Amino acid sequence: MPYSKNMINYTVFCPYAPEEQVTLSDEWQATELCLDLADEFGYACVFDAWGNVHLDYGKVCQAVEDGVI
After folding, report:
1. Which among 67, 54, 56 is positioned nearest to 9, based on CA atoms?
2. pLDDT in tens, 11-46
3. Among 54, 53, 9, which residue's Cα sits nearest to residue 69?
4. 3-class DSSP state for residue 37?
5. Can you give the residue ranges of every domain in the chain?
6. Is the separation of the CB atoms in 46 and 58 below 8 Å?
7. Is 11 buried (19+), middle (13-18) or exposed (0-12) by CB count in 10 A?
8. Is 68:60 a contact under the CB 8 Å cutoff?
């Protein structure tokens, strides 16, 4: 893939498995990983390069109740 000055990184985070955190430059790969982690652990999210939540999936209320976020 050629270098692009406009490349945005996406960080996939699963609070139930923080060791699974990974940063990807491909939005679709980050989305698929987020969905897989949410299916396995219950909740996961993707942050953009500025720290904003780009997307999340799963049971966020349960994660808050469990005290992981």
Report:
1. 54
2. 999 999 999 999 999 999 999 999 999 999 999 999
3. 53
4. helix
5. 10-66
6. no
7. middle
8. no
